[in-house]
Amino acid sequence: xxxxxxxxxRILGRIAAPAILVAIWVLSLLPGETVAQTGWIxxxxxxxxxxxxxxxxxxxxxxxxxxxxxxxxFKEIVQVHxxxxxxVIGTVIVLGSGAEVIQPLFSRGFEFLDIVADTLGGLVGIVxxxxxxxxxxxxxxxx
Length: 143
Description:
The chain starts with a helix and ends with a helix. The longest helix has 31 residues, at 112-142. Helix 1 runs antiparallel to helix 4 and helix 4 (46-64) runs antiparallel to helix 6. The chain is elongated and about 55 Å long. The chain has helices spanning 4-29, 32-36, 39-44, 46-64, 74-80, 82-102, 112-142. The chain is mainly α. It has one domain.
């Protein structure tokens, strides 16, 4: 059963995930002094910016890959999406680690804490994405 609201969530996830990924990689590979001058990073802090970016990426990935079923409880939705969750966690860890490994080639430094921030942000994003799916299913059920 493919509802219009659920379809929009998946479409937006499928558009947002690659766009966010490109933004993450562009910002990750810019020379350090260029990124340091960006106002929002100076306000939030580098680690918070990493966590926020990967949270947005993971949330959009979960929404993009959402399974179209009629589960409405958060626990049921987590169960149905367990393999997708593992895929997103793995993707976040590989992309975050990969960015850190190649940053020295672009006049940036490797920081293990950036990988930790990326991973924690990814986990938050997964929970947010699953919460969005749960909310959409509850709205559809009441309609």
